[in-house]
Design goal:
Elements: H1 2-12, H2 20-23, H3 28-37, E1 42-46, E2 51-55, E3 59-67, E4 70-78, E5 86-89, E6 94-99, E7 110-115
Antiparallel strand pairs: 1-2, 2-3, 3-4, 5-6, 6-7
Length: about 120
């Protein structure tokens, strides 16, 4: 039951979908704080690398878990103007970021693909 509740919490915060098994041991309070801090951004969880990818401000912020209670900001990767919609696909080790170009003259839809190292 706990895994299902955490999975629902993560989904409501805009985080990538997780199976209940992969959500075990995660601190739901941490993700609530993250969703508050990065309101209007998309967040994806990379369980294998213990990272969180946050898009929404023209960059993709990468946060890495150091221990159960601490995450460290390890990178800021440029994306595109107002590119916030994103999804991490762990099987492909890729972060996909949608670039609408909204607010720019002659805006065109584009998809940015980032290989995760």
């Amino acid at each position: 039951m706990r895994g299902i509740l955490i999975g629902l919490l993560l989904s409501s915060c805009g985080l990538a979908a997780l199976s209940p098994a992969s959500a075990q041991g995660l601190d739901p309070n941490f993700f609530h704080r993250m969703s508050t801090q990065f309101r209007g951004s998309d967040m994806s969880l990379d369980v294998a690398r213990k990272r969180i990818y946050v898009t929404g401000s023209g960059t993709a912020s990468v946060l890495e878990q150091r221990d159960a209670d601490h995450y460290e900001h390890i990178a800021e990767v440029p994306t595109a103007y107002r590119a916030k919609s994103s999804i991490f696909v762990p099987q492909l080790k890729r972060l996909y970021v949608a670039d609408s170009g909204k607010g720019k003259p002659e805006a065109k839809l584009a998809l940015q693909i980032f290989e995760i190292q």
